[in-house]
């Protein structure tokens, strides 16, 4: 809790990081969904649109917090000292995860407000709880990818790689445009991506539109891959800097 509290305060002290985390998904909602009356005034379509942009907000928060954020922390003189404390990596990593998930929830607030004011999107109590429950699930998968990037690269390189990975995955995964309007080849290919699996599962929970059959195995498989990459990156960084 102490690590999570201080990491939250560190983020708050950089206003542009807070604004970027909260603003981009909300702007995408306001400019690309709200003007399309056929979508905004259809409860199912509007809810699905909010869900996929909410998925993007969670993934983006994780990628920047754990990818760029970890790389920036590694460049600070205080980081080697903290990593040599007797408490070990567990509490610090748990605090980082807690901080990241808090920002994932905060990133959804302006998005949900715009949806409530300007669209017909609606959720039952069960759908709301299901959607909230999917936030840490999606966050866990992509924070692992963020950690793999953050512990492998310098701060400048990590920011570029996060952007180069995040936006193609988001477009191809249907987080900006529903995969139903993709060309047939892209619709099929996108089913192998973690973003498409996450998007479809969140949309299923919140709007009842069924996900494709392999969404859960695909997301679990990518989680295992990202976990292996994160562990390898951390051990390599630890061995290079402390042995």
TrEMBL record:
InterPro entries: ABC2_TM, ABC_2_transport, Nod_factor_ABC_transporter
Membrane topology: Multi-pass membrane protein
Keywords attached to this entry: Antibiotic resistance, Membrane, Transmembrane, Transmembrane helix
Residue intervals passing through the bilayer: 12-33, 53-71, 101-123, 129-151, 158-177, 211-234
Family annotation (Pfam families): ABC2_membrane
Keyword Iron-sulfur: no
Localization annotation: Membrane
Protein name per its UniProtKB record: ABC transporter permease
